[in-house]
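Here's what a typical entry looks like (Phytochrome-like protein cph2):
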Amino acid sequence: AKAAGRSCWCFFSFELHQQTIERQSLINDLRQALPHNELFLVYQPIVEMQDGRIRKFEALLRWRHPRRGMITPDIFIPIAEESGLISEIGDYVFKESIRQLADWRKRFGEHLIMSINISPYQLSAPDKHMSDWFEFLHAQGVPGAAVSLEITENMLMHHTEVVSNQLLAFRDEGINVALDDFGTGYSALSYLNRLDIDFIKIDRSFVSELAEERMEKDLCEAIITMAHKLKLKVIAEGIETPAQAAILAKFGCDLGQGYLYAKPLLTEGAEALLRAQDTT
Ligand code: C2E
Ligand code: CA
Ligand code: CA
Ligand code: CA
Protein backbone atom coordinates (compact mmCIF):
# COMPACT_ATOMS: atom_id res chain seq x y z
CA ALA A 1 0.00 0.00 0.00
CA LYS A 2 2.88 2.25 0.88
CA ALA A 3 4.55 1.63 -2.46
CA ALA A 4 1.34 2.42 -4.28
CA GLY A 5 0.96 5.62 -2.28
CA ARG A 6 4.44 6.66 -3.21
CA SER A 7 4.01 5.96 -6.86
CA CYS A 8 0.83 7.99 -6.72
CA TRP A 9 2.65 10.87 -5.14
CA CYS A 10 5.39 10.65 -7.78
CA PHE A 11 2.79 10.60 -10.50
CA PHE A 12 1.04 13.74 -9.27
CA SER A 13 4.22 15.62 -8.57
CA PHE A 14 5.47 14.70 -12.02
CA GLU A 15 2.23 16.02 -13.53
CA LEU A 16 2.49 19.25 -11.55
CA HIS A 17 6.08 19.67 -12.58
CA GLN A 18 5.09 19.12 -16.19
CA GLN A 19 2.32 21.68 -15.88
CA THR A 20 4.74 24.27 -14.56
CA ILE A 21 7.17 23.69 -17.41
CA GLU A 22 4.28 23.65 -19.85
CA ARG A 23 3.03 26.96 -18.54
CA GLN A 24 6.44 28.60 -18.59
CA SER A 25 6.97 27.48 -22.14
CA LEU A 26 3.55 28.86 -23.16
CA ILE A 27 4.42 32.22 -21.57
CA ASN A 28 7.67 32.30 -23.54
CA ASP A 29 5.83 31.39 -26.74
CA LEU A 30 3.15 34.00 -26.09
CA ARG A 31 5.83 36.66 -25.80
CA GLN A 32 6.78 35.85 -29.39
CA ALA A 33 3.23 35.48 -30.65
CA LEU A 34 2.58 39.13 -31.47
CA PRO A 35 5.89 39.90 -33.24
CA HIS A 36 5.56 36.60 -35.15
CA ASN A 37 2.01 37.43 -36.28
CA GLU A 38 0.52 34.33 -34.67
CA LEU A 39 -2.35 36.23 -33.05
CA PHE A 40 -5.33 37.21 -35.15
CA LEU A 41 -8.94 38.20 -34.73
CA VAL A 42 -12.15 36.54 -35.78
CA TYR A 43 -15.46 38.39 -35.78
CA GLN A 44 -18.81 37.05 -34.66
CA PRO A 45 -21.94 38.88 -35.84
CA ILE A 46 -24.43 40.22 -33.30
CA VAL A 47 -27.85 40.64 -34.91
CA GLU A 48 -31.04 42.56 -34.22
CA MET A 49 -33.53 40.03 -32.86
CA GLN A 50 -36.36 41.76 -34.74
CA ASP A 51 -35.07 41.38 -38.29
CA GLY A 52 -31.85 39.36 -38.03
CA ARG A 53 -29.70 42.14 -39.48
CA ILE A 54 -26.06 42.47 -38.38
CA ARG A 55 -25.59 45.40 -36.02
CA LYS A 56 -22.30 44.58 -34.31
CA PHE A 57 -19.36 42.26 -34.41
CA GLU A 58 -17.57 40.87 -31.38
CA ALA A 59 -13.82 40.65 -31.92
CA LEU A 60 -12.47 37.34 -30.58
CA LEU A 61 -8.78 36.56 -30.35
CA ARG A 62 -7.12 33.45 -31.77
CA TRP A 63 -3.57 32.08 -31.45
CA ARG A 64 -2.13 29.93 -34.18
CA HIS A 65 0.78 28.31 -32.36
CA PRO A 66 3.59 27.15 -34.66
CA ARG A 67 3.80 23.66 -33.09
CA ARG A 68 0.65 23.17 -31.02
CA GLY A 69 -1.87 24.46 -33.53
CA MET A 70 -4.80 26.60 -32.47
CA ILE A 71 -4.94 27.54 -28.81
CA THR A 72 -8.21 28.92 -27.46
CA PRO A 73 -8.41 32.22 -25.57
CA ASP A 74 -9.74 30.44 -22.48
CA ILE A 75 -6.22 28.97 -22.18
CA PHE A 76 -3.99 31.86 -23.21
CA ILE A 77 -5.85 34.97 -21.96
CA PRO A 78 -5.32 33.97 -18.29
CA ILE A 79 -1.63 33.39 -19.08
CA ALA A 80 -1.44 36.79 -20.77
CA GLU A 81 -3.06 38.37 -17.72
CA GLU A 82 -0.77 36.80 -15.18
CA SER A 83 2.38 37.48 -17.18
CA GLY A 84 1.48 41.10 -17.89
CA LEU A 85 1.42 40.50 -21.64
CA ILE A 86 -2.30 41.37 -21.71
CA SER A 87 -1.61 45.10 -21.98
CA GLU A 88 0.22 44.74 -25.28
CA ILE A 89 -2.13 42.05 -26.57
CA GLY A 90 -5.16 44.13 -25.59
CA ASP A 91 -3.69 47.07 -27.47
CA TYR A 92 -3.32 44.89 -30.58
CA VAL A 93 -6.94 43.70 -30.25
CA PHE A 94 -8.26 47.25 -29.92
CA LYS A 95 -6.30 48.72 -32.83
CA GLU A 96 -6.73 45.80 -35.20
CA SER A 97 -10.49 45.56 -34.62
CA ILE A 98 -10.96 49.33 -34.96
CA ARG A 99 -8.99 49.32 -38.21
CA GLN A 100 -11.31 46.58 -39.45
CA LEU A 101 -14.38 48.47 -38.28
CA ALA A 102 -13.27 51.68 -40.02
CA ASP A 103 -13.01 49.78 -43.30
CA TRP A 104 -16.38 48.02 -42.88
CA ARG A 105 -18.18 51.23 -41.91
CA LYS A 106 -16.98 52.84 -45.14
CA ARG A 107 -17.98 49.88 -47.29
CA PHE A 108 -21.07 48.48 -45.57
CA GLY A 109 -22.56 51.32 -43.52
CA GLU A 110 -22.08 53.57 -40.55
CA HIS A 111 -24.50 51.57 -38.42
CA LEU A 112 -21.86 48.91 -37.67
CA ILE A 113 -20.41 48.66 -34.17
CA MET A 114 -17.36 46.74 -32.90
CA SER A 115 -17.51 45.04 -29.52
CA ILE A 116 -14.15 44.44 -27.85
CA ASN A 117 -13.35 42.30 -24.79
CA ILE A 118 -11.37 44.11 -22.13
CA SER A 119 -9.55 42.25 -19.39
CA PRO A 120 -9.93 43.55 -15.84
CA TYR A 121 -6.13 43.65 -15.75
CA GLN A 122 -6.19 46.32 -18.46
CA LEU A 123 -8.41 48.57 -16.36
CA SER A 124 -7.20 47.93 -12.85
CA ALA A 125 -3.93 49.80 -13.31
CA PRO A 126 -3.04 52.73 -15.56
CA ASP A 127 -2.27 51.24 -18.97
CA LYS A 128 0.24 53.07 -21.13
CA HIS A 129 -1.34 51.77 -24.34
CA MET A 130 -4.88 52.88 -23.56
CA SER A 131 -3.90 56.51 -23.50
CA ASP A 132 -3.53 56.58 -27.27
CA TRP A 133 -6.77 54.73 -28.03
CA PHE A 134 -8.87 57.91 -28.33
CA GLU A 135 -6.37 59.45 -30.71
CA PHE A 136 -6.35 56.22 -32.68
CA LEU A 137 -10.16 56.31 -32.97
CA HIS A 138 -10.04 59.89 -34.24
CA ALA A 139 -7.30 59.06 -36.73
CA GLN A 140 -9.38 56.14 -38.05
CA GLY A 141 -12.50 58.32 -38.26
CA VAL A 142 -14.43 56.04 -35.93
CA PRO A 143 -16.78 57.74 -33.43
CA GLY A 144 -16.78 56.44 -29.87
CA ALA A 145 -20.44 55.49 -30.26
CA ALA A 146 -19.38 52.82 -32.78
CA VAL A 147 -17.36 51.01 -30.11
CA SER A 148 -18.53 48.76 -27.26
CA LEU A 149 -16.22 47.47 -24.58
CA GLU A 150 -17.20 44.16 -22.96
CA ILE A 151 -16.24 43.79 -19.35
CA THR A 152 -17.14 40.94 -17.02
CA GLU A 153 -19.27 41.24 -13.97
CA ASN A 154 -16.63 40.06 -11.58
CA MET A 155 -14.50 42.98 -12.56
CA LEU A 156 -17.03 45.36 -11.05
CA MET A 157 -16.84 43.43 -7.80
CA HIS A 158 -13.20 44.32 -7.43
CA HIS A 159 -13.66 47.65 -9.06
CA THR A 160 -11.52 50.35 -7.73
CA GLU A 161 -11.30 54.06 -8.27
CA VAL A 162 -9.04 53.37 -11.25
CA VAL A 163 -11.57 51.12 -12.99
CA SER A 164 -14.51 53.46 -12.63
CA ASN A 165 -12.45 56.48 -13.66
CA GLN A 166 -11.22 54.63 -16.71
CA LEU A 167 -14.78 53.61 -17.59
CA LEU A 168 -15.94 57.21 -17.20
CA ALA A 169 -13.20 58.37 -19.56
CA PHE A 170 -14.46 55.88 -22.17
CA ARG A 171 -18.03 57.05 -21.62
CA ASP A 172 -16.94 60.65 -22.21
CA GLU A 173 -15.78 59.58 -25.68
CA GLY A 174 -19.22 58.08 -26.34
CA ILE A 175 -17.94 54.50 -26.06
CA ASN A 176 -20.54 51.96 -24.89
CA VAL A 177 -19.96 49.51 -22.08
CA ALA A 178 -21.44 46.02 -22.08
CA LEU A 179 -21.53 43.77 -19.04
CA ASP A 180 -20.44 40.33 -20.25
CA ASP A 181 -21.44 36.90 -18.89
CA PHE A 182 -24.31 38.51 -16.99
CA GLY A 183 -25.81 36.26 -14.34
CA THR A 184 -22.73 34.13 -13.71
CA GLY A 185 -20.91 36.32 -11.24
CA TYR A 186 -21.86 38.28 -8.20
CA SER A 187 -24.44 40.51 -9.80
CA ALA A 188 -24.50 43.77 -7.98
CA LEU A 189 -27.33 45.61 -9.62
CA SER A 190 -26.33 48.96 -8.17
CA TYR A 191 -23.26 48.96 -10.42
CA LEU A 192 -25.43 48.94 -13.53
CA ASN A 193 -26.60 52.48 -12.99
CA ARG A 194 -23.62 53.80 -11.11
CA LEU A 195 -21.17 52.89 -13.86
CA ASP A 196 -23.56 53.82 -16.63
CA ILE A 197 -23.60 50.44 -18.38
CA ASP A 198 -25.36 50.36 -21.79
CA PHE A 199 -25.74 46.64 -22.53
CA ILE A 200 -25.87 43.43 -20.62
CA LYS A 201 -25.00 40.13 -22.25
CA ILE A 202 -27.00 37.19 -20.91
CA ASP A 203 -24.55 34.33 -20.46
CA ARG A 204 -24.67 31.33 -22.76
CA SER A 205 -25.34 28.99 -19.83
CA PHE A 206 -28.84 30.49 -19.42
CA VAL A 207 -29.58 30.61 -23.13
CA SER A 208 -28.61 26.98 -23.75
CA GLU A 209 -31.20 25.67 -21.28
CA LEU A 210 -33.87 28.07 -22.49
CA ALA A 211 -36.08 25.72 -24.42
CA GLU A 212 -36.15 22.96 -21.80
CA GLU A 213 -35.93 24.53 -18.38
CA ARG A 214 -38.66 26.61 -16.78
CA MET A 215 -36.17 28.24 -14.43
CA GLU A 216 -33.91 29.53 -17.20
CA LYS A 217 -36.94 30.84 -19.03
CA ASP A 218 -38.09 32.80 -16.00
CA LEU A 219 -34.57 34.03 -15.37
CA CYS A 220 -34.09 35.31 -18.91
CA GLU A 221 -37.46 37.01 -18.88
CA ALA A 222 -36.70 38.64 -15.52
CA ILE A 223 -33.25 39.83 -16.66
CA ILE A 224 -34.68 41.37 -19.84
CA THR A 225 -37.56 43.08 -18.03
CA MET A 226 -35.24 44.46 -15.36
CA ALA A 227 -32.68 45.63 -17.92
CA HIS A 228 -35.30 47.49 -19.92
CA LYS A 229 -36.59 49.19 -16.76
CA LEU A 230 -33.04 50.43 -16.21
CA LYS A 231 -32.87 51.56 -19.87
CA LEU A 232 -30.27 48.94 -20.75
CA LYS A 233 -30.25 46.89 -23.91
CA VAL A 234 -29.92 43.14 -23.78
CA ILE A 235 -27.73 40.86 -25.90
CA ALA A 236 -28.24 37.11 -25.58
CA GLU A 237 -25.11 35.06 -26.34
CA GLY A 238 -24.78 31.44 -27.39
CA ILE A 239 -28.08 31.20 -29.31
CA GLU A 240 -27.91 27.90 -31.17
CA THR A 241 -31.50 26.99 -32.01
CA PRO A 242 -34.54 28.74 -33.55
CA ALA A 243 -36.50 27.76 -30.42
CA GLN A 244 -34.10 29.70 -28.18
CA ALA A 245 -34.25 32.71 -30.52
CA ALA A 246 -38.07 32.64 -30.58
CA ILE A 247 -38.34 32.67 -26.78
CA LEU A 248 -35.82 35.50 -26.44
CA ALA A 249 -37.56 37.54 -29.13
CA LYS A 250 -40.88 37.03 -27.34
CA PHE A 251 -39.31 38.41 -24.14
CA GLY A 252 -38.16 41.49 -26.08
CA CYS A 253 -34.43 40.71 -26.15
CA ASP A 254 -32.76 43.35 -28.35
CA LEU A 255 -29.76 41.61 -29.88
CA GLY A 256 -28.61 38.04 -30.36
CA GLN A 257 -25.33 36.23 -30.97
CA GLY A 258 -24.59 32.57 -31.51
CA TYR A 259 -23.95 29.72 -33.90
CA LEU A 260 -27.59 29.97 -35.11
CA TYR A 261 -26.59 33.20 -36.87
CA ALA A 262 -22.88 32.66 -37.44
CA LYS A 263 -19.72 31.33 -35.84
CA PRO A 264 -16.79 33.69 -35.31
CA LEU A 265 -15.53 34.44 -38.84
CA LEU A 266 -12.38 35.54 -40.59
CA THR A 267 -12.59 38.94 -42.31
CA GLU A 268 -13.59 37.40 -45.67
CA GLY A 269 -16.37 35.34 -44.10
CA ALA A 270 -17.78 38.35 -42.27
CA GLU A 271 -17.67 40.42 -45.48
CA ALA A 272 -19.55 37.72 -47.39
CA LEU A 273 -22.37 37.99 -44.81
CA LEU A 274 -22.38 41.79 -44.99
CA ARG A 275 -22.54 41.69 -48.79
CA ALA A 276 -25.35 39.13 -48.78
CA GLN A 277 -27.36 41.28 -46.39
CA ASP A 278 -26.72 44.41 -48.50
CA THR A 279 -28.60 42.90 -51.41
CA THR A 280 -31.68 41.92 -49.41
P1 C2E B 1 -16.85 35.55 -24.24
O1 C2E B 1 -16.49 36.99 -24.25
O2 C2E B 1 -18.00 35.14 -23.39
O3 C2E B 1 -17.08 35.17 -25.77
C1 C2E B 1 -18.08 34.31 -26.23
C2 C2E B 1 -17.53 32.93 -26.50
O4 C2E B 1 -18.62 32.07 -26.86
C3 C2E B 1 -16.56 32.87 -27.68
O5 C2E B 1 -15.60 31.88 -27.37
C4 C2E B 1 -17.46 32.42 -28.83
O6 C2E B 1 -16.74 31.79 -29.87
C5 C2E B 1 -18.36 31.46 -28.11
N1 C2E B 1 -19.67 31.30 -28.78
C6 C2E B 1 -20.35 32.21 -29.49
N2 C2E B 1 -21.53 31.73 -29.91
C7 C2E B 1 -21.63 30.47 -29.44
C8 C2E B 1 -22.64 29.43 -29.53
O7 C2E B 1 -23.69 29.59 -30.15
N3 C2E B 1 -22.39 28.25 -28.91
C9 C2E B 1 -21.22 28.02 -28.22
N4 C2E B 1 -21.05 26.83 -27.66
N5 C2E B 1 -20.24 28.98 -28.11
C10 C2E B 1 -20.45 30.18 -28.70
P2 C2E B 1 -14.04 32.12 -27.61
O8 C2E B 1 -13.85 32.89 -28.89
O9 C2E B 1 -13.36 30.81 -27.44
O10 C2E B 1 -13.63 33.09 -26.43
C11 C2E B 1 -13.62 32.63 -25.11
C12 C2E B 1 -13.40 33.77 -24.14
O11 C2E B 1 -12.08 34.30 -24.26
C13 C2E B 1 -14.32 34.95 -24.38
O12 C2E B 1 -15.58 34.67 -23.80
C14 C2E B 1 -13.56 36.07 -23.71
O13 C2E B 1 -13.81 36.07 -22.33
C15 C2E B 1 -12.11 35.67 -23.96
N6 C2E B 1 -11.58 36.47 -25.08
C16 C2E B 1 -11.67 36.23 -26.41
N7 C2E B 1 -11.04 37.20 -27.11
C17 C2E B 1 -10.56 38.08 -26.20
C18 C2E B 1 -9.81 39.32 -26.30
O14 C2E B 1 -9.50 39.84 -27.37
N8 C2E B 1 -9.48 39.93 -25.12
C19 C2E B 1 -9.84 39.43 -23.90
N9 C2E B 1 -9.47 40.09 -22.77
N10 C2E B 1 -10.54 38.28 -23.78
C20 C2E B 1 -10.90 37.62 -24.91
CA1 CA C 1 -17.40 38.87 -24.71
CA1 CA D 1 -19.78 36.37 -22.81
CA1 CA E 1 -18.87 33.48 -21.62
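The chain has a mean pLDDT of 90.

More examples are in the samples folder.
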